[in-house]
From TrEMBL:
One of its GO terms (cellular component) is plasma membrane. This is Putative spermidine/putrescine transport system permease protein. Residues 88-276 form the ABC transmembrane type-1 domain. It is found in: Cell inner membrane; Cell membrane. The keyword Cell inner membrane applies. Keywords: Cell inner membrane, Cell membrane, Membrane, Transmembrane, Transmembrane helix, Transport. InterPro entries: MetI-like, MetI-like_sf. The chain crosses the membrane at residues 32-58, 92-114, 126-148, 154-172, 227-250, 256-277. The keyword Endoplasmic reticulum does not apply. One of its GO terms (biological process) is transmembrane transport. Belongs to the binding-protein-dependent transport system permease family.
Length: 301
């Protein structure tokens, strides 16, 4: 005979049973291994940044000296004089524009694919993921001819191609979010009389907000760090930060300038990543809990 458990009541397992099965047995070795692996990964990703930070405040660093032989901010001054701030601003705007367009499009496509509202979903999924399988320069060279014949302005053409490149990331991220999404919350809100706009704003968006944040972050990275599409399609009319880094890196004696521009290119994604982690912790901690349906009208059961 099945035992009925009231909803919301927590089940406390028998400590003797769990201890005998080893479920609550401490595993210090496994924790040490995880901490060690995390530290090695952090060191692996942080190590390339150290020379950039040193070069950004060095005027001269000759071999075999372990440290710069002359400290200074000539690299920063040259980066500012060569249009580093406008290029930084264009990259920010381009990344935000790509995120603003690709995120809702990816969410709509992922919702339709997840809940079976698209005919031939495997074919549609393959088309949406195709930009990941094709080399970037191949797709760009083919589409550039089409865009030129259609007389699309260079900036809009770059934006369209970057949105297409970001869609696989937003669609995949939102499909994972919608796979764990319980649509019954929306149906219950509609049953209680909420409008579609109210359900979208008060029920749907708060529930999928973490997935939308992750998708927007990935889409921003696509627009922020792009070089191939901007240089081939933009044709020099849209000078972003990656183009400026590439131009100085192609020359000789520009190590300090390249270091300053590279360090500035790390800052926005790092800040967004920290904000995303803080947002995820707040959501998991219950501060952004899903809204409960409104009270039923009088006379309703």
């Amino acid at each position: 005979m099945a035992m009925m458990i009231p909803y919301g009541q927590r089940i406390t397992p028998d400590p003797r049973t769990t201890r005998s099965r080893g479920l609550m047995r401490p595993r210090p070795v496994g924790r040490i291994v995880r901490i060690g692996v995390a530290a090695l990964l952090a060191l692996w990703f942080a190590l390339p940044v150290v020379p950039l930070l040193i070069w950004s405040v060095a005027n001269r660093w000759s071999f075999p000296s372990p440290l710069p032989t002359e400290w200074g901010f000539d690299g920063l001054a040259q980066a500012l004089a060569q249009g580093g701030v406008p290029a930084f601003g264009r990259s920010i705007l381009l990344g935000l524009a790509v995120a603003a367009i690709a995120t809702p499009l990816g969410a709509l496509a992922a919702r339709a694919l997840t809940f079976g509202r698209v005919p031939a979903p495997r074919l549609v999924s393959g088309i949406l993921l195709a930009p990941l399988a094709l080399p970037a320069f191949v797709a760009v060279m083919g589409l550039t001819i089409v865009l030129l014949r259609a007389r699309v302005p260079a900036t809009i053409a770059v934006l369209l191609l970057l949105v297409a490149a970001a869609l696989p990331y937003t669609v995949y991220t939102m499909r994972v979010a919608y796979a764990a999404h319980d649509i019954a919350f929306e149906e219950e809100a509609r049953t209680l009389g909420a409008s579609r706009a109210h359900v979208l704003a008060r029920v749907h968006l708060p529930l999928v907000a973490p997935g939308l944040a992750r998708a927007a972050f990935l889409a921003f990275l696509v627009g922020w760090s792009d070089y191939v599409v901007t240089v081939l399609v933009g044709g020099g009319t849209l000078v972003t930060l990656p183009l400026l880094v590439g131009a100085f890196a192609a020359g000789v004696g520009n190590d300090a300038v390249v270091a300053v521009l590279s360090v500035s290119a790390i800052i926005p994604p790092l800040l967004l990543l920290l904000a995303l982690g803080r947002f995820g912790r707040r959501y998991a901690g219950g501060r952004l809990a899903a809204p409960t349906p409104s009270r039923s009208p009088k006379g309703s059961p």
